[in-house]
Amino acid sequence: MRVGRPLQLEGQAMNARLCLECGAPKRITKEHTWLNNGLIVEAKNPDRRMLFFESENLVELFRNIEEIVGHDIERIIIESQRRMTYDYVINLVPTLVRKIVRLVGIKLLARNLIDLTRLMGYGNTTLESVRFKKEAEDHVAVIVRNPWFLQSFCGLLSGGMEAVTGLESDVSYEEVALDTYRITTHISSHPKDLAERLRERKNVSKEGHLELQRCNACGGPKDLDQFVWNEAEGIIETRSNQRRMVLVGPGEFEPVFDDLENELGEHIPKVIIEAQRRLVTEGFYSREDVRQEKDLIRHFALRGMGNLRDIGLEKNRLHARLENPCMHLVIVGLFQGFYELIFGRHGDIAWEIAPDGDLMIDVTAAV
Hints:
The protein has 367 residues and is of the alpha+beta class. Among the domains are: 55-194, Muramoyl-pentapeptide Carboxypeptidase, domain 2 (2-Layer Sandwich); 266-365, Trafficking protein particle complex subunit 3 (Muramoyl-pentapeptide Carboxypeptidase, domain 2, 2-Layer Sandwich). The protein contains eleven helices and 14 strands. It has helices at residues 11-16, 26-31, 55-69, 74-92, 95-104, 107-119, 150-165, 254-264, 268-284, 293-303, 328-343, and strands at 32-34, 40-42, 45-54, 124-131, 139-145, 169-177, 180-187, 227-230, 235-238, 244-248, 307-314, 317-323, 347-353, 359-365. The strands form three sheets. Strands 1-2-3-10-9-8 form a six-stranded antiparallel β-sheet. Strands 4-5-7-6 form a four-stranded antiparallel β-sheet, with helices on one face. A hairpin with a 7-residue loop joins strand 4 (124-131) and strand 5 (139-145). Helix 3 crosses helix 9 and helix 9 crosses helix 11. Residues 1-13 have low confidence and may be disordered.
């Protein structure tokens, strides 16, 4: 078995790509914008929202969902990620550039996009082989060590290849070593049963009032200095407790939740909320993480989860109002878990999306 030679970058060159003040990659803060309304968006496509999120949270959430519903949802995750990545690359790489690389070869652009996945925390990825002759044998194969979420990464590679080549693709994977996988895309039509499903939600955002302190050097949030980027391994971690982070789009996962609800029924929202509640209460967060209101406001804004305009704790009750929410069922489960951490007892959850789009949450002591 021959593995392609990894892309070699000298330590000095890698460090030069990081901001000297906050330590974040300059490419990340150049191509993404943290707004004052709790959103992170692509600089070239402000309609495309992103999340800077604890990767274990999302991975364990989907594991919990699969456990509760009783079957795997791998195909749905891959297809949703493929669609979102296709749109991401189409907006990131100009049309003329894509046309040129289809004539002269896609390897250079493929390496550039793989380099970006390292900076976004997706794992240690190297390009193994590329074939692009507009024939059935065309493919892109990569080796990835410690992918943040294997099924999501498969969809990412498939969508990226499709955007670059202009040809529909599918993807397969195999484990070649511990936590190391060969992922291969190949020319194939999309699954017909998913053709009309997995549609992205359309959200309207409010203007905000948040005052994010900015890094003087790169212009990104100064709080990015709370994280460490290991470019060689494609891993981002919090300095305080070494939780792994990833930069992803909520549009990759919201359609999955919607599709599960359409396919399996109205109990799915409760399943998603319960899966997230379990994750919070089983040790992912500590009581100290959720006690300070100002810290929670910054926590949500830095991660692009929305603008936490109101949060209160009183007489065994937690209430919150979040502007510009995304993945609202996950956030509802998050607050239910917060309540149980703070008060040490089970809470009953009530929530609604207000006419203006705000997410209203109320947790009270279970009877």
